[in-house]
Structures are given as structure tokens and as C-alpha cells.
């Protein structure tokens, strides 16, 4: 999760966020390069009279210099093309995530409510009449944070966290029960709007286990800040045990039984 005075992004735990961070870093290199070059010539032209001549007239070497004009028109076009290509590539992979033709092992329906999240787990057959794991996820109020969860982050902990397996691809399907919400988990590179009457979906996988935090990112009413997201990513074998046990809400005890404490 984000740390105090953190300037950069949160650590990525999947290829999607890695690509976003790489794009951001590359764009920053380009921006700094352009700023430096343009700034250098701006100062040079203004301070030496190179463009306006010592006597106030336009320099004959700069004015109507066709080669120079072609150069300073095409170079920005190349830069813009590179930025646009990287940006569109990320947008496209956020939608399909290179998994066309592969059916994910798991479907999770994420529904935003005023002001909590609910999660419904289905197997890959997308058979919504079949039995599934379904639970609500509410904020743990500040006064109830007693450290029993192992971590205590104000306005970030929930009673029933979303539990996902690592190294398995899954599809998240987003919708809302009332007003617009947005499911935002920075480490996943994931921010998808939950819109009433509409389903948005996202296929991806995560490679690291851990606890990750997110927020609702679409202003949705008085307690918009009171519907945080906690995602626990565990190994696929542990996850199967949790899922088949239907042990939602008792996950902390489940983890303890594995860690032997
Ligand atoms: Cu919301």
C-alpha cells in the first residue's frame, strides 16, 4: 500500500501495473528530454540574439529555414506517435489483457453499494444458478481496529476481504446496485467503473501473494470514503480450500490454521 511521503507508484503485482509504470517512466524520460532541449534553445535564442540578430532583425539562418522547420515538425510528431502507441497499447491490454481465447478459471462479480462492496464468486462455467460464495465487505470502524487482523490501517480494513488466488487468471465483473462507484486497487493497475445496469469486465492474474488495499474512486455519496477495498491474495491451493469451505468471513482463522499459530 502507499506509504507516508511516497512519491512514486505502489509496487505492481501483475504485468498490467508493470506496463503502466514502464509507460509512465518512459514518458517522463521523454518529457524531461524535450523540456531540456526546448528550454536550452529558448534561453539561447533569447540571450544571444541568434534568432533576432544583434540589431533586432530576424536572423537569416533561422527564418524560413526549411530543413529546420521540417526537423522541428517531424521530431515532435515522432514523440507523439510513440506516446500514443504506448498509451493505446496499455488501454487495449487493460481490456483484453492478452488472454483472448482463454477462459479464466474464476469469475468474481463485484457490486458496489452505498456504501460497501459485495463479492460473488462463480466457477468458469459462468453458471449463475449454481451455488457460489457470496458476501458483503464493510469497513471496520476506527474504534474496532484492535490489531487482531495483523494490520490496522484506518479507513482501509474491511470485515470480509476479497480473497483471490495467485497465478490463476480470473475475470472480475463490475456493476453497481445504486449509483456509480469505481473499483480502484493501485497495485493491480485496476480502476474500473461500476455502473448501475451495466457490466464492465476485466481479465487478469496476479503473481504475488499479500494484502492489498484500494478505495472507491467515484464520488458516490456521504460515505464515499467509507467503502474501502481489501484484497487478500493467497496461493491457489490455499484459495481452493477457502473457496470449497465457503469460509467467507472466517478467513483470518483459516490463515491461522495454515500458519500453525
Ligand atoms: Cu462508491
TrEMBL record:
Reactions that this protein is recorded to catalyse = 4 Fe(II)-[cytochrome c] + O2 + 8 H(+)(in) = 4 Fe(III)-[cytochrome c] + 2 H2O + 4 H(+)(out)
* PANTHER family to which the protein is assigned, alphabetical: CYTOCHROME C OXIDASE SUBUNIT 2, CYTOCHROME C OXIDASE, SUBUNIT II
How, per the record, is the cofactor bound?
Binds a copper A center.
- Tell me what this protein is called: Cytochrome c oxidase subunit 2
Q: Which family does it belong to?
A: Belongs to the cytochrome c oxidase subunit 2 family.
Biological classification of the source: Eukaryota, Metazoa, Spiralia, Lophotrochozoa, Mollusca
One of the entry's Gene Ontology molecular-function terms is: cytochrome-c oxidase activity
Q: Which GO terms describe its biological process?
A: ATP synthesis coupled electron transport
**Entries under Pfam families matching the protein:** COX2 (PF00116), COX2_TM (PF02790)
Its cellular-component GO annotations read: mitochondrial inner membrane
Amino acid at each position: 500500500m502507499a506509504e507516508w511521503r511516497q512519491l512514486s507508484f505502489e509496487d505492481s503485482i501483475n504485468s498490467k501495473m508493470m506496463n503502466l509504470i514502464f509507460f509512465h517512466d518512459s514518458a517522463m524520460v521523454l518529457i524531461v528530454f524535450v523540456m531540456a532541449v526546448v528550454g536550452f534553445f529558448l534561453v539561447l535564442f533569447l540571450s544571444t540574439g541568434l534568432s533576432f540578430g544583434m540589431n533586432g532583425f530576424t536572423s537569416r539562418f533561422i527564418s524560413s529555414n526549411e530543413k529546420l522547420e521540417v526537423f522541428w515538425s517531424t521530431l515532435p510528431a515522432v514523440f507523439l506517435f510513440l506516446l500514443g502507441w504506448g498509451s493505446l497499447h496499455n488501454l487495449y491490454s487493460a481490456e483484453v489483457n492478452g488472454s483472448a481465447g482463454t477462459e479464466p478459471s474464476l469469475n468474481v462479480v463485484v457490486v458496489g453499494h452505498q456504501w460497501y462492496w459485495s463479492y460473488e464468486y462463480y466457477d468458469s462455467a459462468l453458471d449463475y444458478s449454481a451455488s457460489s460464495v457470496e458476501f458483503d465487505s464493510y469497513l471496520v470502524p476506527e474504534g474496532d481496529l484492535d490489531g487482531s487482523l495483523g494490520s490496522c490501517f484506518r479507513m482501509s480494513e474491511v470485515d470480509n476481504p476479497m480473497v483471490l488466488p495467485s497465478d490463476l487468471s480470473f475475470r472480475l465483473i463490475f456493476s453497481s446496485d445504486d449509483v456509480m462507484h469505481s473499483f480502484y486497487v493501485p497495485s493491480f493497475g485496476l480502476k474500473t467503473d461500476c455502473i448501475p445496469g451495466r457490466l464492465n469486465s476485466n481479465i487478469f492474474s496476479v503473481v504475488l501473494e499479500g494484502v492489498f488495499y484500494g478505495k472507491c474512486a467515484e464520488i458516490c455519496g456521504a460515505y464515499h470514503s467509507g467503502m474501502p477495498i481489501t484484497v487478500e491474495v493467497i496461493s491457489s491451493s490455499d484459495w481452493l480450500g477457502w473457496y470449497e469451505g465457503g469460509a467467507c468471513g472466517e478467513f483470518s482463522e483459516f490463515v491461522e490454521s495454515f500458519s500453525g499459530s
